[in-house]
């Protein structure tokens, strides 16, 4: 999945000596190929929709097609709004949660992943994809921000783990 106007590099690994790759887009109105090198290409998401990138591997010595690889690409619009489904959440020390399950992005079918920031990294660690782990007791504010600058906040209360009580 890509956001409209996003670029991505596709690379073919473990090519044998004498093999070359040709890349093409099934629908260049949706995904165009903007730069091609010997083993890779850069694609750009031009419009919302689905298409495939086809990589055809050729043996240049025998002038023969060896293999065809296909990669499905889904281009989605960027998010226009982000909201947490609740204003607060409680975790115990050492508990984890995927913060993305507490979020609503609009449109619903966007591939955008918000950027998460935390007010106290000693209490709560959050990975770039939204997995959070409670490290110590405290109250933390988590902010989810999308590319247009809109954001929402969640207060996370972290309590002592039951085995510590």
Give a quick precis of the structure.
The chain is mostly beta strands and 165 residues long. It has strands spanning 2-3, 7-11, 19-25, 31-36, 40-45, 49-59, 64-76, 81-84, 88-92, 96-98, 103-106, 115-118, 124-126, 131-134, 138-145, 151-159.
Molecular structure report:
- With 165 residues, this protein is an all-beta fold.
- The protein is built from no helices and 16 strands.
- The protein has strands at residues 2-3, 7-11, 19-25, 31-36, 40-45, 49-59, 64-76, 81-84, 88-92, 96-98, 103-106, 115-118, 124-126, 131-134, 138-145, 151-159.
- The strands form five sheets. The protein has a four-stranded mixed β-sheet with strand order 1-7-6-3, with no helix packed on it. Strands 9-16-15-12 form a four-stranded mixed β-sheet, with no helix packed on it.
- β6 and β7 form a beta hairpin.
- The chain starts with a strand and ends in a 6-residue tail after the last strand.
- The model has no long low-confidence stretch (mean pLDDT 93).
Poorly predicted regions: none
* Overall pLDDT score: 93
Structural shape:
elongated
Give the termini distance in whole angstroms: 45 Å
Strand order of the largest sheet: 1-7-6-3
Number of strands: 16
Largest sheet: 4 strands, mixed
> What fraction of the residues are assigned to beta strands by DSSP?
over 45%
Radius of gyration: 22 Å
User: Which structural class best describes the helix and strand composition?
Assistant: mainly beta
Output the number of helix runs: 0
């Amino acid at each position: 999945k890509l956001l409209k106007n996003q670029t991505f590099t596709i690379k073919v690994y473990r090519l044998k000596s004498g093999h070359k790759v040709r890349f093409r887009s099934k629908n260049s109105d949706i995904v165009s190929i903007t730069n091609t090198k010997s083993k890779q290409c850069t694609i750009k998401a031009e419009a919302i929709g689905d298409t495939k990138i086809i990589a055809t591997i050729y043996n240049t010595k025998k002038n023969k097609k060896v293999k065809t690889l296909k990669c499905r690409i889904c281009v989605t619009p960027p998010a226009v709004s982000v909201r947490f489904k609740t204003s607060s959440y409680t975790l115990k020390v050492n508990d984890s949660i995927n913060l993305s399950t507490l979020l609503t992005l609009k449109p619903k079918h966007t591939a955008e992943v918000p950027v998460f920031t935390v007010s106290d990294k000693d209490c709560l660690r959050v990975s770039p994809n939204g997995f959070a782990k409670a490290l110590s007791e405290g109250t933390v504010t988590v902010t989810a921000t999308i590319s247009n600058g809109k954001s929402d906040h969640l207060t996370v209360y972290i309590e002592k783990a039951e085995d510590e009580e």
